[in-house]
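Data availability (excerpt). All sequences and predicted token strings are deposited with the supplementary files. A representative entry, Serine/threonine protein kinase, is shown inline so that the format can be inspected without opening the archive.
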Amino acid sequence: MATESTRTFLPASGSVLNGRFQLEGVLGSGAEAVVYRATDSRGGRPVALKVFRKPADDGGQRREILIQRKIRQRGIVALRDYSHHADAEGRPEFAVLELVEGSSLKKILSAGAADPTLVISWAESLLKSLAYIHSRGIMHHDIKPSNILIPQLPAGRFSTEAKLTDFGIASSSAIPCTSSGYGTAHYMSPEQADGGVAGSAGDIYALGLVLMESLTGTRPFPGGAIESLLARTLRRPTIPSVLGRRWAALIAAMTAVEPSERATARQALHLLRRVQHAHFRGHLPDSVRDIGQDRHRRSLAPNGPAVAETVAA
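Structure token line:
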């Protein structure tokens, strides 16, 4: 824990950092940092300023910056700049991040389950982001609703895009995480709950729980942190039958107890395609759906029933 001597001065709203960033208000606060909405005087662009509570030598922000500055993917909140000039006067270090005008998934789910059509789109966006970072040897380690941002469109509608944020405890093959007990209890993988090291499969597991919560409005493993952690070391989450077999297949593949049995991000994307196909066809008028079925039968007939069964699965 940081002492008074290791803590840095946290600026007040209305102040200016580095003679450049006008702070306009607090967007969020955590143990390691406070995030402000700010305006960059160089061009007037709105940004999010993540101001660290402690100097770099006393926390993991240097690792966070080294990892995130290598990431260029539209489904991940972009790092624009970084100031590492904490000094004797207590002026803080901070990261300049892309500002997402919208809500966290946590806030959206506080009102109940989300629209399944949106959840499908968000799942695709997030799985593509995980496929991107995992292919580069990067693990997020803290996938949860509060670390997923959903941009808001005009008239109050939510975007079909989801953005992953907060790489505070991320690790890579070159820059390991040295923290113990990292992650958030309700979304930890079984191997993390057992005190082991989580790789990319841990991110997949956590996202599987997030998707299930998004569809049902409740956490897959309710109860206190200890009870929840113990339960997931013993069994898979119970997937409600109302979600349908394709959603059930995807979530089951993402939340297997053994990491080696879980789908990768790319494999999960393939399973999601089946969810998308079934969901879209389920929302077509009967007349359009019947025409499509006739076309499928004609196109599949020469190939025999095995091919037809594969396409329909």
